[in-house]
């Protein structure tokens, strides 16, 4: 009885291997379309990440208020509590941009074996999208911190409304886009790992 089960298991395994090979042979066009889509998505992600990194890198060196000509220090150096926060937000956004660039480049340069489509490429897509989302959010917070620094946190009600409304809309829209795009991939990876 035990020998029959081993033979049956080997037969099922061989049929499964043949089915995977048959699927790979008959659906070659799907593989080519998937490779093209992944490369296009990685290219777009790298482009957006590079633009966000450029903005944050510029924000780190072109401090709001410029530099004092005599002391060569930033004009807002006296606001010691606000300036490090600006640098922290900008540096965090740069960190996430580098993460996006790394995972997108890794996905773009992949050799695309069929096995990678089940786990590694969706994982790279999820990490790249998540780090791009975080870099966008930290870029918005860098903008708000720069605005607070430049205006000395003195807003009229209308100015505060004009600053907060676009900021809130940007953060909410980023959240909706992130959930819409990344949730199916996240759910797939969780199902793959735990079920």
Please give the alpha-carbon distance between the first and last residues.
30 Å
Helix content: over 70%
Shape: elongated
Mean pLDDT: 84
Helix-strand string: HHHHH
Rg measurement, Å: 25 Å
Helix segment tally: 5
Structural class designation: mainly alpha
Please describe what this structure looks like.
The protein has 195 residues and is mainly α. It has one domain. Helices cover 79% and strands 0% of the residues. It has helices at residues 2-26, 28-61, 83-108, 120-151, 157-194. α2 (28-61) runs antiparallel to α3 (83-108), α3 packs antiparallel against α4 (120-151) and α4 packs antiparallel against α5.
What attributes characterize this protein structure?
single chain, 195 residues, mainly alpha, 79% helix, 0% strand
SSE blueprint:
Blueprint: H1 2-26, H2 28-61, H3 83-108, H4 120-151, H5 157-194
Helix pairs in contact: 2-3, 2-4, 3-4, 4-5
Question: How do you describe this structure in short?
Answer:
The chain is mainly α and 195 residues long. It contains five helices and no strands. The model has no long low-confidence stretch (mean pLDDT 84).
